[in-house]
Design goal:
- The protein is mainly α.
- The chain has a domain of 274 residues.
- Helix content is 55%, strand content 6%.
- The protein contains 11 helices and 7 strands.
- The chain has a 3-stranded antiparallel beta sheet, with no helix packed on it. Strands 4-5 form a two-stranded antiparallel sheet. A two-stranded antiparallel sheet has the order 6-7.
- A hairpin with a 2-residue loop joins β6 and β7.
- The longest helix is centred in the middle third of the chain and has 31 residues.
- The chain is elongated.
- The N terminus and C terminus are likely disordered.
C-alpha cells in the first residue's frame, strides 16, 4: 500500500493500492476506480462483479427490474417515483380493461411507456442541455416509420391469420408475417438511432445510444399500437370483448411490445455507440458488447414472438410467452449494459474529490466510484459536475448539489 500526497484539488491524504486485476494504482477502497473490480472479493466474483450491477451497484446483474433496466441514468432517489409511475400505468390498464372502454385503453397502451421514458429523459438530461432536438428527431422519425410499417406489415399479419386450406406456420403468408414483418420492423426501429448518432456532437457515450435507440423504438411502437388497436373504435365506446381478452391485448400491445422493442433497440444503440477502452480489463466477455450480437438477439426475440402471435394459442399461453421473452430481454440488456460500462472506462486518473451521486460518499473522481462501484457514465451528466469538494485553507467545502 502507498500514499498519495494532496494538491489543492485532491483529498488531503489518499491511501492507494495496485489493483490486482488491471494493475492500476487506485484508491484503497471497496471497488477499483479504474476497472470497477470489487477489491473486497477475489477471482471471477470480483472481476466480473455480477453481484453488483455497474449502473445500480446495490442490485445484482441478474435481476428482473423494468425501471433499473430501462432507465439506467436514474439517481438512487428517483427510482421509487418511477416505480410508482410504472405501477400506476399497469393499474390504469387493468381498470380500463375491466371497464372495456376502447379509447382510454388505446391511449394508455400507446402512450404509457413512451411518456414514462420522456419523463426519464427530462429528469436525467442525458445529452446535457441538448436533449430536445435529438429526442424529438428520434421520437417523430420512429412514429413515422411505425405508422407506415403498421399499415404495410399489419395487412400481412391479417392475411396469415385468415383460415385457409393448407395454411400453417410454414406457409408463405405465415413466414412473411412471422419473420419478415418483425425483422424489418426491428431494422426500421434502428434508423432513428443511426440518424441521432450522426447528429451527436461532443463526447459520445454508450448510454446515449441506449436512450436514442429506446426513444426511436418507443415512437415506432406508439404508432403501431394505435394502428393495431384502432379497430376497437369502430364498435363504439366499448370494446365488446371480455375482461381476459382485453387484458391480453393491452399486455401484448401496451406492455410487451413497447418494452421489448425499447430494450432490444436500446441494447443495439448502446453497443453501436460504445467507445470501448483499449487497455486491459478484468471484465473480459467483450463479445457481449458487440452491436452484431445485440441485433441478432433482437431479431431472434422479435421473430420468435412473430410466430407466437400467429399461432393458435390460448390467451394465457400467449401472455406467458411474451412475459418470458420480456424477462429474457431484460436480463440480456442488463448483462450487455454491465459489460459495456466495464469495458467503456477510459479514464484511470485520480481526479478532484466529489460526492458520489449514488452513495453520497466523498470520493475521488474516477471511472467508477471507489466506495459503491457505480460506473461514472451511468450517472447523469448534470449530476457529475455539481458535487466537487475542493480544499480551501485545509478544509473541505462543498460546491454545487451533492444529492
Amino acid at each position: 500500500m502507498s500514499e498519495m500526497t494532496s494538491s489543492p484539488v485532491d483529498l488531503p491524504v489518499l491511501a492507494t493500492v495496485v489493483c490486482p486485476y488491471c494493475a492500476v494504482v487506485v484508491p484503497d477502497s471497496r471497488f477499483c476506480g479504474a476497472c470497477g473490480a470489487h477489491l473486497v472479493h477475489s477471482g471471477l466474483r470480483a472481476s466480473q462483479r455480477l453481484h453488483s450491477y455497474a449502473a445500480f451497484p446495490d442490485e445484482p446483474v441478474f435481476r428482473i427490474s423494468v425501471v433499473t433496466s430501462l432507465f439506467p441514468h436514474l439517481s438512487h432517489r428517483a427510482k421509487a417515483p418511477f416505480r410508482v409511475g410504472f405501477a400506476v400505468f399497469l393499474v390504469l390498464l387493468l381498470i380500463f380493461a375491466l371497464a372495456g372502454t376502447a379509447a382510454p385503453l388505446i391511449a394508455v397502451s400507446a402512450l404509457g411507456v413512451p411518456l414514462l421514458f420522456l419523463l426519464y429523459i427530462w429528469e436525467v438530461d442525458p445529452y446535457e442541455g441538448s436533449f430536445l432536438p435529438t429526442t424529438f428527431v428520434c421520437l417523430l422519425l420512429g412514429v413515422g416509420l411505425g405508422a407506415g410499417w403498421a399499415i404495410i406489415g399489419g395487412s400481412e399479419v391479417d392475411k396469415a391469420l385468415l383460415p385457409s386450406l393448407g395454411s400453417g406456420l410454414t406457409s408463405g403468408s405465415s413466414l412473411v408475417a412471422a419473420v419478415a414483418v418483425p425483422a424489418i420492423g426491428q431494422l426500421l426501429m434502428c434508423v432513428p438511432m443511426i440518424i441521432a448518432r450522426r447528429m451527436q456532437r461532443g463526447p459520445v457515450e454508450s448510454l446515449d445510444g441506449f436512450v436514442a435507440g429506446a426513444t426511436g423504438a418507443l415512437g415506432f411502437t406508439l404508432a403501431a399500437t394505435i394502428d393495431l388497436m384502432s379497430p376497437w373504435l369502430s364498435n363504439g365506446q366499448l370494446t365488446h370483448e371480455g375482461f381476459l381478452s382485453n387484458v391480453t391485448q393491452v399486455i401484448l400491445r401496451g406492455v410487451s411490445l413497447p418494452l421489448i422493442s425499447a430494450m432490444a433497440t436500446g441494447f443495439i444503440g448502446m453497443a453501436f455507440w460504445a467507445k470501448l477502452g483499449g487497455r486491459a480489463t478484468s471484465a473480459r466477455a467483450k463479445w457481449l458488447t458487440s452491436p452484431g450480437i445485440a441485433l441478432l438477439l433482437a431479431l431472434i426475440v422479435q421473430v420468435g414472438l412473430g410466430f407466437t402471435d400467429i399461432a393458435a394459442l390460448s390467451d394465457a399461453v400467449l401472455v406467458g410467452i411474451h412475459i418470458v421473452a420480456l424477462g429474457v430481454l431484460i436480463l440480456a440488456t442488463r448483462v450487455g449494459m454491465h459489460y459495456v460500462l466495464l469495458h467503456e472506462a477510459l479514464d484511470v486518473t485520480i481526479g478532484a474529490p466529489r460526492v458520489c451521486a449514488n452513495c453520497t460518499h466523498l470520493v475521488p473522481t474516477m471511472a467508477f466510484c471507489p466506495q459503491c462501484g457505480v460506473a461514472g457514465r451511468a450517472v447523469a451528466r448534470p449530476h457529475r459536475h455539481h458535487a466537487t469538494w475542493p480544499l480551501i485553507d485545509g478544509f473541505m467545502t462543498p460546491q454545487g448539489d451533492s444529492t
